[in-house]
Design a protein that fits this description.
Radius of gyration: 18 Å
Number of helices: 11
Number of strands: 0
Shape: globular
Structural class: mainly alpha
Number of domains: 1
Helix content: over 70%
Oligomer: single chain
């Protein structure tokens, strides 16, 4: 549970830095590339390797899963941008959060993790709370529902890659797995920046590097937490806990006001967290 709590705190820091960057960033994709650069540098430090391909058992699996995860990371970001342009902000954000269903169900179906009655109830309550978080006035633009479903699946699959590596990969190479994940995401993001002809300003570089620090540690601690706890507990708890903490951070740090509907949703989420961890 200790690693899961650390992952939650890092996830909140990502949101705080993203919020702070809104007034200053020029090109979100360039900032994202700098984020992946910092993640890659931290992965190199923690892997203790100065080479991308050290001689070790299980390296091909590590490279394959890390590369897929890196592609999914960037793919989810692009899908989110595409959906926001067609469906508004609220619906894509909601579907991204609902992506927690994907790794939870796949962990139960593929790896036989036990979904007790209380855990099933906890997941259902968490999903209901996520839907409740969307204000009544926040409707989409009537865009593509297929795009939203693909976004949900892509985001969920990117999360599931950590569980997949925990089951199939070498524990000793977990830092190498994260290195491949972020290096592939960085390479693809740089290519995208070039294609979009996006320049890099100091604001994008600064906030990208800042965001990269908690982003790396959030991924690292989430991976470590999967070694200690069932994925059917980790993923819903991580998703629901992040919602609660980021909402409270917005309230305390940025003076955001919460509607009665959101206060109710937060209380429901807290109930879901209790059920998931019984």
């Amino acid at each position: 549970m200790f690693y899961l709590i650390l992952a939650l705190l890092c996830s909140v820091m990502i949101t705080v830095f993203m919020r702070l960057s809104e007034r200053y960033r020029k090109n979100p994709t360039s900032m994202l590339a700098m984020n992946y650069l910092m993640c890659s540098l931290l992965a190199i430090i923690f892997s203790g390797q100065l080479t991308l391909f050290p001689k070790a058992d299980g390296l091909p699996v590590t490279l394959l899963l890390g590369s897929i995860c890196g592609a999914l990371f960037l793919g989810s970001f692009l899908l989110l941008q595409w959906n926001v342009s067609r469906n508004g902000v609220a619906l894509p954000a909601t579907f991204m959060k609902l992506g927690v269903l994907v790794p939870t169900l796949l962990s139960a179906l593929i790896f036989g993790e036990q979904l007790t009655i209380l855990r099933i109830l906890g997941v259902a309550v968490a999903v209901a709370a996520i839907l409740l978080m969307q204000e009544e006035g926040q409707k989409g633009k009537g865009g593509s529902m297929a795009g939203l479903i693909i976004l949900l699946l892509a985001g969920g699959l990117s999360d599931f890659m950590s569980k997949l590596y925990e089951e199939l990969g070498e524990t000793a190479l977990k830092d190498q797995y994260l290195l491949y994940t972020f290096v592939v995401a960085l390479i693809l993001c740089v290519i995208l920046c070039i294609l979009r002809k996006q320049s890099l300003c100091w604001q994008d570089a600064l906030f990208g590097l800042l965001i990269g620090i908690p982003n790396y540690f959030s991924a690292r601690f989430l991976l470590l937490s999967l070694n200690q706890l069932p994925a059917v507990v980790v993923y819903p708890t991580f998703s629901a806990g992040t919602i609660v903490l980021t909402t409270l951070a917005g309230l305390i740090l940025f003076g955001e006001k919460l509607s009665t509907r959101k206060w109710l949703a937060l209380c429901v989420i807290l109930g879901a967290l209790v059920l998931l961890n019984l």
